[in-house]
Amino acid sequence: MATDRSADAPPGYDEEDPYTDADLTKFEPWWRNNIEVFNAHGMRPYRPPQFSDGTYTPKVIRALEKEHGVSIQLRVLDPQAGNDWEIRIDGEPVETVERYRDDGGFSVYDIDSEAFRQLVNDSLGPE
Predict the structure, then answer these.
(1) Which residues pair with 107 in a beta bridge?
(2) Which residue among 21, 41, 45, 52 is least packed, with the fewest CB closer than 10 Å?
């Protein structure tokens, strides 16, 4: 059950650690690595970013990068000025998307995974 979580909570604070009883070897390498990095730095437990349909962004991005042989990044435009993030392919901006944190502590990009895939495919054009 999701709980309200303040973004103002101090680093490392969390009501619960979702990985307390988890077998980390069951997680994909990118996820396991982020769990370990967050833990090593005393940060809140890692919660992977998602698209608006709940699909984890790293999984979709990695698949698209492999399929097209490109680098895809989501980068904040101005961390002091709002929640707009830029979608970049091989360093070139192609679109902006809003990002917010949901009640469960997940970062959510306001685009669903299919629309993101289509955006990347359209941006790259025919191969």
Answers:
(1) 101
(2) 21
Determine, yes or no, domain membership for 86. yes
pLDDT higher than 90, residue 61:
yes
pLDDT at residue 11 in the model: 47
Domain that holds residue 105: 49-124
C-alpha torsion sign, points 80, 81, 83, 84 = negative
**72 within domain boundaries:** yes
pTM greater than 0.70? yes
How many independent structural domains does the chain possess? 1
Dist CA 77 CA 88 (whole Å): 11
C-alpha pair distances (Å), 79 with each of 43, 82, 125: 19, 6, 31
The dihedral over CA atoms of 64, 68, 69, 75, expressed in degrees to the nearest 10, equals -50
* Residue 96 burial (10 A CB sphere; 0-12, 13-18, 19+): exposed
In angstroms, the first-to-last Cα distance of the chain is: 44
Strand, coil or helix: 73: strand
**Domain contains 23:** no
